[in-house]
Amino acid sequence: MRRRQRESVGADVARLRGGAAIAVVVIFAVAGCKDLQDKGTSGAPGAGAGGGGGGAAMTAADSLTVKGRAPKTGYTRAKFGSAWADTDSNSCDTRDDILKRDLKHVKFTGGDCKVSYGVLDPDPYSDKDVTYRRGRSLVDIDHLVALSDAWQKGAKYWDAGKRIALANDPLNLLAVDASANRGKGDGDTATWLPSNKSYRCTYVAAQVAVKKKYGLWVTAAEKAAMKKVLATCPGQKLPTGGNPTKAPSRFTAR
């Protein structure tokens, strides 16, 4: 009798354990799917595409104001302040901050600010590895929203503090292959996209984020191009963060 009771209890425990195991598998599968949706595909500005519809990047792109491109008249780089100003006051210039963030195997000269060596592994625009060496670099720091493009889509009417902030905001900056960056020029989404197709959703989402953060408008062709790319990754998130939209008052522009 006792033996039959023990066998019955053992069978019940096995059934419970089996049910718990199935429950764990189901929970893990659900959590795993969510995790794949939530994780980004790049350490650079932007987040990876996820499943499902109604992604924040597409919603933000829809909300951008559409206007025609204003004349480039009056634009100079100096309108956005001196290059790579230390607007976050960490005693390192903005260029070195982005190199430290985006390169691997980083080496420094004279402390922990001046980057002397590193590797883009890989470059987000071309998907190839690019080596950075100070003084003969194959790496540029790209303004995702080019300053000239910003000038023609609202920045012309800003005060200097806001323009300086845009030029040095990590949300708008990315270490990339120099040749790819120079091929881009001051193009927007309608005129240039990275040759690395797997990075296009992240790239466009970052441009949308910058334009939304700073209140820049887009042309009709640009908005259509943004939505065309984001339609291929409907769960694409919208990157956030970066610096305040006004630089400290000690920085000036000509």
What report would you give on this structure?
It is built from 8 helices and 5 strands; from the N terminus they run H-H-H-E-E-E-E-H-H-E-H-H-H. It is mainly α. The strands form 2 sheets. Strands 1-2-3 form a 3-stranded antiparallel sheet, covered by helices on one side. A hairpin with a 6-residue loop joins strand 1 and strand 2. The N terminus is likely disordered.
Please give the structural blueprint:
Elements: H1 2-38, H2 56-63, H3 94-102, E1 104-108, E2 115-120, E3 130-133, E4 139-143, H4 147-151, H5 160-168, E5 173-177, H6 178-184, H7 200-214, H8 220-230
Antiparallel strand pairs: 1-2, 2-3, 4-5
Q: Which overall shape is indicated by the principal axes computed on the Cα atoms?
A: globular
As residue ranges, the low-confidence spans are 1-43, 47-53
- Main β-sheet: number of strands, strand sense, barrel status? 3 strands, antiparallel
Helix content: 25-40%
Mean pLDDT equals 85
Number of E strands = 5
How far apart are the first and last residues' alpha carbons, in Å?
Answer: 96 Å
Give the number of domains: 2
Widest sheet: strand ordering: 1-2-3
Strand portion, in percent? 5-15%
Mind telling me the C-alpha Rg? 24 Å
Alpha-beta classification: mainly alpha
> How many individual helices?
8
Oligomer: single chain
Order of helices and strands: HHHEEEEHHEHHH
Which terms would index this structure?
254 residues; mainly alpha; 3-stranded antiparallel beta sheet; two-stranded antiparallel ribbon; 8 helices; 5 strands; 40% helix; globular; disordered N terminus
